[in-house]
């Protein structure tokens, strides 16, 4: 009877978590859309726009190690609710300033810094809490629903933002985000973050483990987990090499091929739809048996798609066929991204001890955020010097090489020892 009640509660968590994530992510993306346009219209300066991006990235990178420590030593429910309340208050403060004295760049930058920190607190802690919210059999479903909410927000938010911007004032955008954040607080308050948790650490902070010692313990734990370390290195190097896509895709389509903004938007929409459809598939399908092998194949596929972005620069195509080609390419790219991310996320959720999840995910966040700007700066430099098609093709080759080396057959067998039995079983069935 008790197990049935826990499973019913886990089902409630699945949908509450998804709705909360959808509401808060949509609000954040509509706000981001509006504030980006506002800064550009207010100043006409790319530097002011870039400064706002820096205010989003830098605080996250600096705060992530501390966030992992807090997530592993204190109540995760209190951290998430406090973070969401802080988000609500920050938006409320910006709304008050806009209504009384008008928005200024200083107020926007300050709010962006606060939102960056609170979203990282919430994101790392939520990721660390999945195995406490739902039963092990539905971790893949939870991660897929999370991706679905992000995909829905990616599809709908720019459309909503585009329709509203110009027809309503900035305070209306802030009110929308304020309401979304407040609803998210109410939903998160009803969730039991310890339903399936297996934490040994006291969550009242009474252990008083120093921050530096806690981080060292997290790194020491990772050293004893070679498969997790392999996954982290693959993730980091992929993040770095993805600068080729982040910088090059818009540059090639807009500057080189002169694709108009509306059609460029169609290709971005196809990417989000590909993510959404694969997220739905993973949410209703069976759990992936060999996640690292599945992700390895997905990354190889992404490497091929990355090089395919360069094809219209090498072969002459009509404008209409070029747009259609990129719609198909981006649909495949979005689908492959979920094929890579979801199995790996499920594997990490199951392999990392509850007491170390905050630190491990914060280490991953810190390193990924540190490498991302470096990759974008490097690729911005490369695209200015070398032909774009060769930058993409070389990056594709490096991406595939990285996964073939780091996820070589010996590592796959170590991660999935049951794979050998599976292959032998298939061989016997054929014979």
Summed up, what is this model?
Keywords: Cell membrane, Membrane, Transmembrane, Transmembrane helix, Transport. This protein has 431 residues and is an all-alpha fold.
Word description of this protein:
The chain folds into two domains: 1-192, Growth Hormone, Chain: A (Up-down Bundle), CATH 1.20.1250; 214-431, Up-down Bundle (Growth Hormone, Chain: A), CATH 1.20.1250. 84% of the residues lie in helices and 0% in strands. The protein contains 17 helices and no strands. Helix 9 (243-256) packs antiparallel against helix 15. The radius of gyration is 22 Å and the shape is globular. The N and C termini lie far apart (47 Å).
